[in-house]
TrEMBL record, chain A:
Keywords: Membrane, Transmembrane, Transmembrane helix
Source organism of this protein record: Subsaximicrobium wynnwilliamsii
Domain YdbS-like PH: start-end pairs: 75-153, 410-484
Listed transmembrane segments: 17-41, 53-73, 190-209, 237-264, 366-383, 389-406
Lineage top rank: taxon: Bacteria
The name this protein goes by in its record: PH domain-containing protein
InterPro entries: UCP026631, YdbS-like_PH
PANTHER family in the record: UPF0699 TRANSMEMBRANE PROTEIN YDBS, UPF0699 TRANSMEMBRANE PROTEIN YDBT
From TrEMBL, chain B:
Residue ranges constituting the YdbS-like PH domain according to the UniProt record: 89-162
Highest taxon, organism lineage: Bacteria
Name of protein: PH domain-containing protein
Keywords: Membrane, Transmembrane, Transmembrane helix
Source organism of this protein record: Subsaximicrobium wynnwilliamsii
Membrane-spanning parts: 36-54, 60-84
Pfam families the record matches: bPH_2
This protein's record includes keyword Cytoplasm: no
Length: 496, 171
């Protein structure tokens, strides 16, 4: 990647025009999508909206031209360069903006590649600083080698201790996901979430197109079909069951496809001190993990996944915006690999520490919450099903037994001088790990009723996540509180 | 109870032994005034409704509504009074402690080395009583920030100065 000179103000690769234009056009089409569909449908029905096809095409071409001109202007006015200590950026067609970012304030540099960028073989480089999300800068078209060189330059000097000396070396590929494991990961996911997304999408779509459906007389046909089935309650039940099964299948496919697309070709490179993650099918990205910035580690699996030896690791870093935070997840790893990463990212982590459970009072709290939720649900259930709602109560009772049993079984905590580990989850098995010297604040929390029972919780906050040691004996909670404070204050180490 | 036996956990400084200071009594007046304002508006609305609305529902249930509001007001004041005693704070060499809450009692500690910045704010009302609020921000989520309300101005400045010098001296 030799020496690329960044000291003079330079534009990005001229392919940038295409990228900017592509993004703008995509946004335009997305926001006027409904209008297009409406026009298309009315065309199908040979009804005119008072605007002829010729005018529509003219308007379309005009908009495309305007977008193109704007893209070119934007490209021409987008210049950046790197000085000894700062990164400079000049943008703006009408309002000129000059942004200066001191190298020391740069938190993360990502290299990403969306579908269009993959086609024309450029990458975008994102520079993230601490502070609000608006401070993020994106250079949308650079050659890959230029981007890497720029990344190296941005990291030189200031963060020499971390990234720069690591970068030039060739890294070992530590983990590369196989398609089979990725598929298994997708299938064994907790589908409840994607089911909800699909259902809401379905209803959203339905209400969006209700008008057009009516025009096409589809709704009448559907209603007619439903009316036939409504002759018996059983048939209605079957229809609903069928609908739910279909939606479940769709959500399964959705989960699998989503997992595949996001994590396609997932690769973890191991450098001396940092880790690099590459992944994505349409949006390729590469991310760098720096151990010193890591605040929390979350390991997730579930019963099925554990059987197939599938574990995922989410890394919560400080000073990373919420949207980006999601991307720091490595899925479909084996247990051995997780252990290896834990050892790399945390100093001397061992799971041999003594395990403690919450007090049995926790079960009572869980039941109380369930009963509250159910009391609220019982009202409508009574109205719909009449006296049969007791049957649902029975189902609920079974669910409650299973829920409380597993929830309690999976909750535990471990404390050593350097680490705090908290386990939890109901369907998923979630393990939260944090280093004690990264704790920002501690809270001892006790309700009026818990006080009488001698129960309390300890809330532990780091810069990126808050975890709770739930419902333990108040005396234990106080000792943990004192002990963790001692760990934070005696170590005298920086949290970042 | 901890595996690491090198440290005698009983010998650690204990949170129970910290002597917590109550906040300035004058702050109770501010709480009362704020609550009075809220309930004043509600009562005023009720009375206006009674006088000017011909809606039968309001007219027939007025006293019930008034009683409900009165009860709510009374219990709210009682709780606020009792909870006021729970608002305590303390400073140690290495951390700041703030406790509050009656129904849900929270005792929060922020190590001084984790403080990002400190802010003293005075609202118009608290200026009349010579009070100030001390906000202590960490890098953590909003739940880990401390806001100690109802300190006397002198005390707030003193704590602010102490924390500032310690934070700056430490790094």
């Amino acid at each position: 990647m030799a020496a690329v000179d960044f000291s003079q103000p330079a534009r990005q690769s001229s392919k940038g025009i295409l990228v900017i234009f592509g993004v703008k056009a995509f946004k335009f089409i997305k926001s006027f999508f409904i209008l297009f569909v409406a026009y298309g449908i009315s065309m199908l029905q040979k009804k005119q909206l008072g605007i002829s096809l010729g005018w529509i095409i003219f308007g379309f071409v005009l908009v495309i031209l305007l977008l193109l001109v704007f893209s070119i202007l934007k490209y021409l006015n987008f210049k950046f360069h790197v000085s000894a200590d700062d990164f400079h950026l000049d943008t703006g067609v009408i309002n000129k903006d000059n942004t200066v970012i001191p190298k020391s304030k740069i938190q993360n540099v990502y290299i990403k590649q969306n579908f269009l960028q993959q086609l024309i073989n450029v990458v975008s480089l994102n520079i993230e600083t601490a502070g609000d999300n608006k401070s993020e800068i994106e250079i949308s078209a650079l050659d890959k080698s230029t981007a890497l060189a720029l990344k190296t330059q941005l990291f030189t000097k200031i963060q020499a201790d971390v990234a720069a000396e690591d970068l030039p070396k060739e890294a070992d590929v530590f983990f590369k996901v196989s398609l089979k494991r990725l598929l298994m990961e997708g299938i064994s996911q907790n589908h409840f979430k994607s089911f909800l997304i699909i259902v809401s999408f379905f209803f959203g779509l339905y209400s969006e197109f209700e008008k057009y459906l009516k025009e096409l007389r589809l709704s009448e046909r559907i209603e007619g079909a439903v009316r036939l089935d409504e002759q018996s309650l059983f048939n209605l039940f079957l229809v609903n069951l069928f609908l739910i099964v279909v939606l479940l299948l769709v959500s399964l496919v959705f989960s699998v496809v989503q997992t595949l697309v996001v994590n396609f070709n997932l690769e973890v490179l191991e450098r001396e001190r940092t880790l690099e993650i590459h992944k994505g099918l349409f949006n390729k990205m590469s991310l760098t993990l720096t151990p010193s910035r890591i605040q929390n580690l979350v390991i997730k699996t579930n019963r099925v996944k554990a059987y197939f030896n599938l574990y995922s690791l989410s890394v919560k870093q400080a000073m990373v915006n919420k949207k980006q935070q999601k991307n720091f997840t490595i899925v479909a790893m084996e247990k051995v690999q997780i252990d290896h990463l834990l050892n790399k990212l945390l100093e001397s982590y061992s799971e041999e520490t003594e395990t403690h459970k919450p007090a049995p009072y926790y079960k009572r709290i869980l039941w109380l919450r369930l009963v509250l939720i159910f009391a609220v649900l019982s009202g409508p259930a009574f109205l719909i099903f009449g006296n049969d709602f007791w049957l649902i109560n029975l189902v609920f009772l079974l669910f409650g037994l299973v829920f409380v049993h597993y929830k309690f079984k999976k909750t535990y905590y471990q404390i050593s001088e350097a680490h705090l580990t908290i386990g939890g989850g109901f369907i998923d098995t979630i393990t939260n790990i944090l280093e004690t010297h990264k704790i920002q604040a501690l809270q001892f929390k006790q309700t009026f009723f818990q006080k009488r029972n001698g129960i309390a919780s300890v809330v532990v906050s780091t810069a990126s996540k808050t975890v709770v040691i739930p419902y333990i004996k108040a005396t234990d909670a106080k000792r943990i509180y004192d002990y963790l404070l001692f760990c934070v204050e005696s170590q005298d180490r920086d949290w970042m | 109870m901890f595996t690491n036996t090198q440290i005698d956990t009983n010998a650690l400084p204990q949170i129970d032994q910290v002597e917590l200071h109550p906040i300035d009594k004058a702050y109770l007046k501010i709480i009362v005034i704020n609550k009075l304002l809220v309930y004043g508006v509600i009562v005023l609305a009720l009375i206006l409704a009674k006088l000017f609305l011909v809606d039968v529902l309001i007219q027939s249930y007025f006293w019930l509504l008034a009683a409900a509001v009165g009860l709510l007001c009374l219990s709210n004041f009682m709780l606020a009074l009792l909870a006021f005693k729970k608002r305590m704070y303390a400073l140690r060499d290495k951390d700041v402690i703030y406790a509050h809450g009656l129904l849900i009692h929270r005792l929060t500690t922020v190590p001084i080395s984790r403080i990002q910045h400190i802010e003293t704010s005075r609202s118009w009302l608290s200026r009349q009583f010579g009070l100030a609020t001390l906000n202590i921000y960490t890098a953590g989520e909003s739940g880990s920030d401390l806001s100690i309300k109802g300190l006397s101005e002198a005390e707030a400045t003193r704590i602010n100065d102490f924390l500032s010098t310690t934070v700056n001296g430490g790094s």
